Amino acid sequence: MTLDSRTPSGPLADKWDRHKFDIKLVNPANKRKFTVIVVGTGLAGASAAASLGELGYHVRWESWVLQLPEGAAVPRRDLPEGYTVRAAEPDDYRAAWTVQEDAFLEWSDRDRQSYEDWESSLTRRPGFEPWNLRAAHVSCNSARGNRAPKPQLRTSRNW
Q1: Whose CA is closest to 62, among 5, 108, 2?
Q2: Which residues, in sequence order, are CB contacts of 36 under 8 Å at separation 6+?
Q3: Residue 115 has what pLDDT?
Q4: Fewest beta carbons within 10 Å, which of 42, 54, 64, 74?
Q5: How far apart are CA 97 and CA 101, in angstroms?
Q6: What is the 8-class DSSP label of residue 77?
Q7: Residue 130: pLDDT band by 50, 70, 90 thresholds?
């Protein structure tokens, strides 16, 4: 078996320039056929995703990072009685999708993402681990009595 990296010939300093000029261009009519995965955070990742989307490419997913100002801390808060936080299980995914879509559609002008698209971009993506999606649950034996809990989840996506 031969490993071929397809590295252009010539001096190292010129290889990238040579590659840029030798590569085939994408026909504008075919851009939607290509899926682009943006791996980046902060302004760089968001800018790349927005730029590629504006050019007509289908951007698969974006990466968001929440950052605290220097010196700031998140105060520890105990959960209310009867609540637990754990990794979401497959039975929780549809409720987590609903909570997330409802929360983000409050300020977004985008259409509601289908459950299937959400699931493939999160729980079926390469590298997904159960702890990536956490959910808060109300136990049946809480102060609410012995009623079954309502299907309400508070989720966080950790990428």
Answers
A1: 108
A2: 52, 57, 58, 59, 60
A3: 93
A4: 74
A5: 6
A6: -
A7: confident
Distant-in-sequence, close-in-space partners of 123: CB < 8 Å, separation ≥ 6: 90, 93, 133
Which structure tokens are listed for 70?
A: 């220097």
> Does residue 12 surpass a pLDDT of 80?
yes
**What is the domain partition of the chain in residue ranges?**
26-66, 83-157
Average pLDDT of span 141-156: 48
CA-to-CA dists, residue 101 to 26, 41, 137, angstroms: 33, 21, 18
Q: Which residues pair with 138 in a beta bridge?
A: 83
Q: Locate 21 and state its tokens.
A: 């000029």
Supply angle C-alpha 104, 63, 136, rounded to 5: 55
Residues making up the chain, counted from first to last = 159
